[in-house]
């Protein structure tokens, strides 16, 4: 038997963690040799994304299939923590090339909401303001609405609603119809005139103003 065979086994034999401590010369007592830090993971070292490229992608994603106002896009960039300077520069550029156009947005919004939802000028103005369209831009776009088209939309709303009011007397029907038009943004004068006329056409009577 050799000398090595008679030598007692090391303290860490059978215990992997103790063996690793012994191999790296780490101990828990005074004078311990600090373990060398682990090597840096070069695969994890990814360069920071270009903020401007990120912001541009956000804008293009937002504009895919749907027009948006400058304020809507600015709010989205702010929510993504895009620096104000970068956001302003990109939005200016997008306006220059026509990708952001609040005037066109306002006209398109009115064209879809006025006949589709039967909204009056007042209600449309409130929606455009919530979208961030400048009041002057909104006024110019709303001025293009033909008053006859607005009245026609009101009449269409009343005729549709009348079908569900057959079981109510004329007084209740008048109040509900006028209230519906008011919620759509119509003034009381036009609302009462349209309701009276449509009730009369249906062989019913309404309230006086």
UniProtKB/TrEMBL annotation:
All copies of domain RecX third three-helical, residue ranges: 149-195
Keywords in alphabetical order: Cytoplasm
Pfam family, one: RecX_HTH2
InterPro entries: RecX_HTH_1st (IPR053926), RecX_HTH_2nd (IPR053924), RecX_HTH_3rd (IPR053925), Regulatory_RecX (IPR003783), WH-like_DNA-bd_sf (IPR036388)
Subcellular location as annotated: Cytoplasm
Domain spans labelled RecX second three-helical: 101-142
Domain RecX first three-helical: 55-93
Domain of life: Bacteria
Annotated stretches, region: Disordered: 1-49
Alphabetical list of Gene3D superfamilies matching this protein: Winged helix-like DNA-binding domain superfamily/Winged helix DNA-binding domain
Record function comment: Modulates RecA activity.
Family in the record: Belongs to the RecX family.
Protein name (Swiss-Prot/TrEMBL): Regulatory protein RecX
Protein species of origin: Nocardioides hankookensis
Organism lineage: Bacteria, Bacillati, Actinomycetota, Actinomycetes, Propionibacteriales
